[in-house]
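Researcher: Last one for today. Full complex below.
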Amino acid sequence: MPEGRLATTVDEVVAAVEAIGPAAVKAQVLVGGRGKAGGIRFAENRAEAETVAKAILGMDLKGHLVKQVYVEQKLEVEAEYYLSVTVDRSARKPLIMASAKGGVEIEDVAERDLVRRHVDLSFGLPAYLCREIAAEMGLVGDEAKQVAKIVGQLYDVFRRTDAELVEINPLVRCAGRIIAADARLNIDDSALFRRGDLPMVEEGTALEKKVHAIGLAYVELDGDVAIMANGAGMSMATLDAVQHFGGKPANFLDAGGGASVEPTAQAIEVLIEMKPKVILINIFGGITRCDDVARAITQVKESRGIPVPLVVRLVGTNEEAGIEILKQQGIQAYRDMDQAAEEAVRLSRGGA
Amino acid sequence: MGILIDRSTPILVQGITGNQGSFHAGQMAAYGSRVVAGTSPGKGGTIHQGVPVFDRVSDAVNETGASASVMFVPAPFAKDAAFEALAAGIKLLVMVPEHVPVQDTIAILEYARYQGAVVLGPNTFGLVTAGEAKMGIPPGHIFAPGPIGLVARSGTLSYEIADALTRAGLGQTTAVGMGGDPVAGQTFNEILHRFSEDEATKLVVMVGEIGGSAEEEAAPFIQKMNKPVVVYLAGKAAPAGKRMGHAGAIIERGRGTLESKRKALEAAGASVVEMPWDVVPAVRDRLS
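Model: Here's the assembly. Have a good evening.
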């Protein structure tokens, strides 16, 4: 690893560059492709450090505010490589990818320059495979040895941390030494229960974090039709339906395949907080009971009110009871998803 | 007819004394499924939902002849439960739990291959052979026997489409849930192979979504398949880089887009419809 330190102010960046010498100033945000987006720049001296720090600190990088940079010793790079271990969904196995043409995003590396090797989880990664990967990258001698060793270590990290992705890019050669100049590690959310030792950095907006804390799947979008449905597939299809009729979904919110009154009411409150033009609730009750959904709507309506038009599509288990409860609230439920989506879109345009 | 299960399949319920396991064991039996046993460590020797409960899967298999198991255990214990079932000789394992670590799933699937067993899921609603048997959590009443095979990643979206088919008089052979995780026990390709060999299935409805490439990988087989395929793909409005509820529903680094799936499937001769409510007309069209 090259020498480096974190900085949050322009003065700190300047001080760091003075201490380290020529350096790379890297925005610390959870997003890939920082270099291309202007989030990584170089500073040779005090004046450049100041200019670069002012440009990067506080910038909006793909929707993320840059509050911190990492000032890192600039390396005299002789070669840049790429190395990663990830999960190949199709092969259902860990996949090692390597390339002698690193330093760019992996999507930009030509297929012929990529070395791919699957690993059987049960058998582990044999040393010969690491050597083979280094050889296929076109490396020889001591350099090949060093890279092969790093391949093995990277796979160990992948296993030990329950990673979905562990990537070194670029892996650089500097005066004959192999150095990991930048790296990325994504941990499988489902494995966090046994990875409590790792520091956790949650991505997303404030509202996204809040809704995730309730235990619901939620993604913020930039439209004006707030949407809740039950199940991930239904929720996605509801967004598609709104878009199909020319509306703009404000969010994705999966209230769960079998959610009861309380979580459903919480989900509706989230929709209200988004201040949309209209709320669309699309329920196909399989395990979810329509009367529970209707009760949740009633509860929210009576406790805090629903300040925007509400369109509900409600079919399936206990449908009649649900429709009756809504009727008492003056809400007419739809039977078909297309009609409900079309009405929601119409209302989002001011009812015209 | 149908695939994977029928009314004679002897079914074990792992985690039968828990809330979910208990409720759905009852629902499965009420539908007609042959539930023969349950497991729950420490509760062996009792009777639950009318069937004997065992501490260990091997005892349940030896004494009741169970060959299929549906798992309702918390995700952190899913790997161990799966290995126990596969070691005991279970040949069809339906993994309902969501949030199973993906490296656990990979290990389970490697062991299943070694044991010659089929795994559905994780994060699946299970499957139902209409009018005969169901495993997992699908509501039975929306399915009716008929000639349509259904395979989907999503549960509720399957219900939506199965219900529409049933109300249109288009019953089903078997509806199968692959599950919403990035790594799944069965792929579209594998399920389509099974449907193509099932005499009762005349057409297959496939419900895909953004993420991965399981849809595209089914295209070469669809091209030479002896039965028409109608496809609905969810997630057109989904932004890149965000997980849409399912761990597997994410466009990553430009891969997993709907456009790539649609192109591959249409080129293979499948009817790819725009919206869920377009499925029934397309099915009628391809059957006539």
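The domain at 206-348 of chain A is CATH 3.40.50.261 (Rossmann fold). Chain A has a mean pLDDT of 91.
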